[in-house]
Amino acid sequence: KFAGVVATTPMGAREAAKAPIIIGDPSYFGEAKSRRVGTVIRSICILDHPVARIGGIPSGQIILPQKQIGRHNDIYVTIVGQGHGVAQDGMYIAIVSTTAETADPAKEVQPGIDLLGPVLYRFDNIAPSLEPTDDGTKDGQYVFSSYD
Q1: What is the distance of C-alpha 146 from the center of its chain?
Q2: What is the longest distance spanned by two Cα atoms in the chain?
């Protein structure tokens, strides 16, 4: 039996769901269904050259292990080129991310940024990391943890 579940979009619009359960990101459910457990930074960088540290190939991933860089969390660097349809020919997109440990998250991703070489444009996104406050079995609203 479906009693009706109401979801709020991140932009605030309310719509009645037509499903027995709702599964989603914490940003769709608000503070009653999730709690902040940290902060994540993602720096999106636009490059006009392949990244030398991965041998100049058009796409790849670098993980800077926490113990090697004196942190509690790894730094992740993802590079994608034109072959994935996300950048025009000769351009590359790099995303450098980590869980913030200080009040200056942009400084924390710098070891990953330094691996990229010259960066044409950099866009930093600092967002809360959220986790559900319950397992969803009582009301049919299943919230998963934020991605880091």
Answers
A1: 8
A2: 58
